[in-house]
Amino acid sequence: MRHPRLGSFLLLLALLLAWEAACRALELSRLVLPPPSAVALSLWQGLASGYFWPHLRITALELLLGVTTGCAIGFATGLALAESASLRRLLMPYVVASQVVPKLALAPLFVLWFGFGMTSTVVITALICFFPLLENTLTALQQVAPERLELFRMLGATRAQTLWRLKLPSGLPSILAGVRVAVVLALVGAVVGEFIGASRGLGALVIATQGTMDTSLMFAVLVLIAALGMFAYQATLLLERWLLLPFTRTN
Amino acid sequence: MSPSAARPSEGARPLGLRSGEAKDAQRASLGDASLLSMRGVRFAFPGWPPTVDGANLELQAGAIHCLVGRSGCGKTTLLKLAAGLLQPDAGEVVFRGKRHDAIGTDMGFVFQSPNLLEWQRVLANVLLPVSLHHRPTAQETGQALQLLEQLGLAEHARKYPRQLSGGQQSRVALARALILQPALLLLDEPFAALDAITREELQRDLLQMCRARGTSVLFVTHDIGEAVYLADRIDVVEDGRVAQEIAPDLPPRSAATRTSPAFAQACAQVRAALHLEAVAA
User: Fold this and answer.
1) Is the pLDDT of residue A196 over 90?
2) Across A113-142, average pLDDT
3) How many helices (H) does chain B have, and how many strands (E)?
4) A74: CATH
5) Does ipTM top 0.85?
6) How confident is residue A105, by pLDDT bands cut at 50, 70 and 90?
């Protein structure tokens, strides 16, 4: 195919047309399944009137704050555990135990602790991002080839130099793969966090549209959530590509 | 240095040189004494029988030694003991009259794989031993470029290791080991993964570089031809010790060396020491 994206786009168009045709032919209730045209209208009205923007902004901000704090703490913890075997022995069981508990199940508790609003959602999002970063950082730093460690020992490198100049750069690709996983999971955290503990944000909007039985508006919000997720993912990919330039550059 | 390091047999040696003394003076005063000596060295990985057991090795300054032996005979372990990457359970490793308890300085090490940092350019890789201690000066950068030039890599200095062939990567690893102008170069089957033609070129270049600089070499290989071509002394390693030392009687190496009868004879001698003839019979 001459243009790689063309096929995907045509498929989307075909699916939307089929959906529209089905809604009209079967005369489905708009409450159950609104046709794409109605969803598009809701979306347009919401965007044009400015109704969506504050909610979109809140969710995007929660996502950003949650991802950065969660990734930063996960990275730092992974670093600490990778560098200290005794710390690893001491803390690893707790880290694993904390990950077995579904974090979304903790949302009501966070609402209790941090109140109804943005903070509890950011905490849930951060908690979700924490583990992939910890896991990937820990694995990446421990998987440095023994020959390279010997090289750095031979050259009289200090522990800090070995970390900054060998372990971190060589682990960077898998650490960044952890960021990518974290970003995708984080949106789930943010939206579900808002379901439970917020009155603003796209997740809260989904709950609100459920209450008013405005299904086409709900679909419009879902489209926004998907768009936000794809934007965040693409942004992460760009960041990754930029940080990995020394690994891919050929000039 | 612990008092036990000074054995009676070392009386003639200028032991206990102060670190403040100039490097060159130290080199000169050592004269033709051993640069590296390993005496009664024993080493076992925890939970395993000894890999190296009672190994003795004397390496004169400027000499090129090859350690030859079957897989698992302990030659790589012996090399790591010489480097100070491993500490002997018994016996001693003395480098320039000092028993070394830590990683040896003034030694270059070349690993089985080129072991280059793929996120750094070739020049930065060569300068790594320098840049770990201070920011490379213009002079040091010049030295690195000169080394690359001598190894035929002048136009590749700004490239990344992934853009080079396996042979070129091995050359970069060699340049990195030589940048600090070490007195001793330790190589662990550095050319084993290369094709035969590239390997011969690298052997030739290694020999030239080390002869020109007076660098001593301890080279681990399982390739008999490689050992005979490179070495002044071939140490045949068996069961964790140097079973036999062979000095091949060959003129200065040239392209014709490999096809000379003397070369074949030396190879046969090493083969015999490795009990290869008995297997064939």
Assistant:
1) no
2) 92
3) 10, 10
4) 1.10.3720.10
5) no
6) confident
Domain assignment of residue A29, yes or no: no
pLDDT at A2: 65
Please, are residues A55 and A110 in contact by the beta-carbon 8 Å criterion? no
**Can you give the length of chain B in residues?**
281
Give the Å distances, CA to CA, from A251 to A245, B78, B162, B166, B200.
Answer: 11, 41, 11, 19, 30
Residue A145 to residue B118, Cβ atoms within 8 A: no
Could you tell me if A249 lies within 8 Å of chain B, comparing CB atoms? yes
Residues B64 and B185: their CA atoms lie apart, in Å, by: 9
Distance from B158 to chain A by nearest Cα, in Å?
Answer: 8
Among residues B157, B209, B160, B168, the alpha carbon closest in space to that of B191 is found at B168
The alpha carbon of residue B264 is apart from the nearest alpha carbon of chain A, in Å, by 35
Q: What does the mean pLDDT of chain B come to?
A: 83
Residue pLDDT, tens place only, B78-115: 999 999 888 899 888 888 877 776 666 789 999 989 99
Q: Which residue of B lies nearest to A146 if distances are taken between CA atoms?
A: B115
Q: Could you list the residue range(s) of the whole structural domain that residue A127 is in? A: 59-204
**Angstrom distance (rounded) from CA B121 to CA B141:** 13
Chain B contacts of A166, Cβ < 8 Å?
A: 117
Beta-carbon separation of B112 and A150 below 8 A = no
Q: Mind listing the pLDDT tens digit for each residue in A17-66?
A: 999 999 989 888 888 899 999 999 999 999 999 999 999 999 999 999 99
pTM of the predicted model, to two decimals?
0.81
String of DSSP letters for A151-218: HHHHTT--HHHHIIIIIHHHHHHHHHHHHHHHHHHHHHHHHHHHHHH-SSSHHHHHHHHHHHT-HHHH
Tokens describing residue B214: 């007076």
Report chain A's mean pLDDT, rounded to a whole number. 91
The closest CB to that of B119, out of A153, A246, A250, belongs to A246
For residue A206, give the amino acid letter: V
Q: Which tokens go with B249?
A: 């009687």
Average pLDDT, stretch A128-145?
93
Number of independent structural domains in chain A: 1
Phi, psi of B102 (to 5 degrees): -135, -170
**A166 touches B at CB < 8 Å:** yes
- The minimum CA-CA distance between B238 and chain A, rounded to whole Å, is 24
